[in-house]
Structures are given as structure tokens and as C-alpha cells.
Model the fold of this input.
Amino acid sequence: MTITITAFEWSPDGGKGLARDTRVRWALEEVGQPYEVRLVSFGAMKEPAHLALHPFGQIPTYEEGDLVLFETGAIVLHIAERNAGLLPDDANARARAITWMFAALNTVEPTILELATAKLLEGDKPWTRERLPLVVDRVRNRLQQLSVRLGDADWLDGAFSAGDLMMVSVLLRLKASGLLGEYPNLADYVARGEARPAYRRAFDAQLAVYTGKPPAG
Done:
């Protein structure tokens, strides 16, 4: 059955790979699963046809026959469970990889999104000057904890897994802030993720939506 995902008709991140469809594209590229993309406008995302797929009017969605999914964590986990390459065969290692997926989305990403909100959406508010340093400290705390856990390893728990895919995707949001550079092992970790051929294919495909050019290669 053909897999179809949805993505922004025009990428608001400027083609930087931060839109969440990139995570799903990356997972599909890692497992060698072909897919199609249906582009939707911001207006179309709030219409009944799209809301039937995603009740919160966001992207991406995932359609495979009668199966419809939303939320990148659920989609990537489904892809990883149905295809070899993103979850270990060992049951305990598999459980740990899934734990890292949840950690990326539930523990690390919220602080990063809070920082983005404080800068981009609340930058003109009177309380921002006092609040922003507190938000930055919370991000640094999470990065320090993650940096200690990663140490000098290439990946979070042995071989590359869906846990790394989600964590790298989350950390990519910090590249422009300069905070990631304060933790060299995390910066190197993200760079390793970006260097994976599957990530490059996913990034190029998402970039093509913004630029209107076909993906390289």
C-alpha cells in the first residue's frame, strides 16, 4: 500500500528541516520505504478534510490503506515497528530506544519550544526581558543532563535508533541559538545525525518544498 504523508505547502521554517514532516521523511528514508507527499496550505489544514486526519489541524499526517496517524512520535514509532533499521532486535534495547523517543518529545523538546515561543512570539512583551534568562537556563539544564548521559558515545544507546532520530530532530531547533555549541559532544551528535544519507534525502525533499526545486540527486 502506498504511504502518503502531509506537509506544509510552503515551509514556514525557510527550508531548514525543522518542520515536523522532516522527522517522518527521515524515518521512511532510513528504512527504505517509498512514500508520497500531499502538500496542504495553512487554510486547508483547518478544513474538515484535513481535520478528519489530524483533529488539531497540523502536519504531518500518515496514511497507509485504512490506517491514518498523526503526531510524529506515533508515526515514527509505527514506521520503526513495521520495518527493520530503527529499533534493535533485543527486547530490552528496543524498549530503551522507545524510551529515548519519549524523552526527546516529552522532556527535551518542551523547553526548546518554550525558548522559541519566548523569542519569536513573546519578544515584545514587557516580561520577556526577565523571563528569557530563566527559559535559557532550563534549556541549558536539559542539555547538560543529556550531554553527561551521551558522554563520548556516538549514539544514545548503542547503534543509531529511532530514539536518536527523534532526539537529533529536536536538538536541531537549537542550532541558530548558539546553545548547542556550548556542549561539543551534543553538537557532534547532531552533526552525525545530519550526515546520515537518509537524513540528507529527507532534508533535501523538505527544502525542495520551500525553494520549489527538485531534491538533489
About this structure: The mean pLDDT is 91. Residues 91-196 form a domain with the Glutathione S-transferase Yfyf (Class Pi); Chain A, domain 2 fold (CATH 1.20.1050.10).
